[in-house]
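Extended Data, record V-type proton ATPase subunit a
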Amino acid sequence: MGSLFRSEEMALCQLFLQSEAAYACVSELGELGLVQFRDLNPDVNAFQRKFVNEVRRCDEMERKLRYLEKEIKKDGIPMLDTGESPEAPQPREMIDLEATFEKLENELREVNQNAEALKRNFLELTELKHILRKTQVFFDESVPTVYKSSSAYSSAKYRRYLQMADNQNEDEQAQLLGEEGARASQPGQNLKLGFVAGVILRERLPAFERMLWRACRGNVFLRQAMIETPLEDPTNGDQVHKSVFIIFFQGDQLKTRVKKICEGFRATLYPCPEAPADRREMAMGVMTRIEDLNTVLGQTQDHRHRVLVAAAKNLKNWFVKVRKIKAIYHTLNLFNLDVTQKCLIAECWVPLLDIETIQLALRRGTERSGSSVPPILNRMQTFENPPTYNRTNKFTKAFQALIDAYGVASYREMNPAPYTIITFPFLFAVMFGDLGHGAIMALFGLWMIRKEKGLAAQKTDNEIWNIFFGGRYIIFLMGVFSMYTGLIYNDIFSKSLNIFGSHWHMSYNKSTVLENKYLQLNPKGDYEGDPYPFGMDPIWQVAGANKIIFHNAYKMKISIIFGVIHMIFGVVMSWHNHTYFRNRISMLYEFIPQLVFLLLLFFYMVLLMFIKWIKFAATNAKPYSEACAPSILITFIDMVLFNTPKAPPQDCETYMFFGQHFIQVLFVLVAVGCIPVMLLAKPLLIMQARKQANEEVQPIAGATSDAETGGVSNGGSHGGGGGPHEEEEELSEIFIHQSIHTIEYVLGSVSHTASYLRLWALSLAHAQLAEVLWTMVLSIGLKQEGWLGGIILTCVFAFWAILTVGILVLMEGLSAFLHTLRLHWVEFQSKFYKGQGYAFQPFSFDAIIENGAASAEAE
């Protein structure tokens, strides 16, 4: 548990490994996940390191595995994931893995190429089949649609074209009869038409027609028909819609022009015989070839499926093995070679408590490699700041993540996470207090906790779900605490539970209650004298006029009380930091004035609240009746400004207790006196310590050395607590830093106290929203009667439930969560937490494989 309250003690170690044992030893350390290696070759290019070729080989193997994975996912084949993590293969096994992956890739690429060629051939034959069918229809039509594009087409030409169509079944030739102008000597000379047939994408057809019309000036005849069934594109496997077209033209010039236009629109042209017998013969040959291709394609797909199924069984394990090999060689590139080239030297950060475990892992690696020379692990002395390492489990991990999101703790600094486990859900519950809403949230968190193994195994890439699942214990605790505060507020879906019976009774008769909208209960006669056993009396639920007034006063005061206690606790945490780092100056001249300032002003205000609650009551006689109760806010303002309190009502006292005025003046003077102590004491003492150090060094050395001065002042002031760099700062920077820190604390004490009023504001808003939903939605359904009322109630309840979960639980819950996070980051942690460290990032196979899988899913 020590590492939960402070980060683990870390040690910088030097590791000596024999070259033949280095791979196995690093593999064992990767399985252990407790060592963070430093780069001893920061100036060496990544392509000039010793094991760069091995890393490249691993990259190539990863590329082949990703190709296999993509093909497996394309076919929808499930990949076997046993959840086990195989050990990193030996270096000699890399050759076998490379050969296996090479064989699989080549075989799969060859199968894919063959399948693509077969599919392309199948597509061409299918298109040709549709062309032969559609062109036969075109030729069989007696009156085709003719494009009349220019004045060259006359009525005589159209009549002769009809005559040609009537004789079409005899000679199966399309002829155009017309004038040739200057080029024709006979007006009625018959000329033979040429034609081309092909297939084009359906969406390109309108533009294709317009281009033909304009480029050929309307001297072409185009017929087109849609292919009903979509065709598969062999390149990407997409389904495309195409149309068959046939173009009639006259002359070679138009033929060339038409073919160029077809090429520009990527239309595929196919040969089409003129004679019907030839077309029938070609169609029969095409159908035969399509049947043969279907058989061959089926066999190819079966073979491809068998190859992928065999690869899918081992793909996950192969990925793990390759990533482990790559991680090992990448880590070995961080090492240095000694002069003999037989030993690798590494430097690493390790937790002090785990050094023996690490040494055992190194021995196992040496035994696996068969080396006779044991590895050497030496602890080094260093002035560097070690990384911060907090051990966590599945419960504390989420709370630690909240703290680290603000900033990673400085080395051995007090860790707020264990206290946040309680304070975070509690402050959230103060704002979210509702038994019903808290139960919904707690049940959701409990469901995720009960099913956590199955849900964790699904490994979805939905970011929102991963956030919810990662914080399942936070959600559960927030729900449980909200149920508790809901019982305190006696609030469940904006209604109250009358478990113990109200301790108020009504002295009015029935007619008085029904005839008067506003009635008031007198605490002297209508209150039994003892409070409701647990939480708030349910009578306040029916108090329409002063319910909010009472709740406001109650929740506002408890918000200030919780806030001041939370801030005092944060200041006390700074004392633990100062004592641990033996920072005597900060303890005497920062911690004590800060605590005194907070206690004498704001904690005194909290005490006034309790005194007011205890001494003043409606059942008491003057001067302690409810009419004589002073305003705490006015009292505090008068105290700070040294104002004379206003004259109290008759028979009431000015002060709540004897000597209050003297105590308040004394408290304010002492609190104000703490400000110059916080502002000047620490910088002046540092300046004095430096001056004494200079006086002691000069008679001996004859001159002042920066190194000697820094060493003396370091030992004389903080004792290593504030960090060795603080004494090296210039005095002007120290004064400026201390001024900013003091001003921030003094003004922050006021603003932070007011900031805790968000507990009251959000609690009030949540309760009012719940009441609005009940009054304006659910109560409408509850007022309905009969079988129709049951249907209406069901619909209204469904709508109310959706709004309750969506708005009050999700949106209000998120709002309360963010406000609670702010109270911890700013109001609480600013009192003691610097968060200037850097996280311990050990060489761990588990983390590397998890990150690799996450990046692969993101791609």
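Summary. Residues 140-296 form a domain with the Alpha-Beta Plaits fold (CATH 3.30.70.3450).
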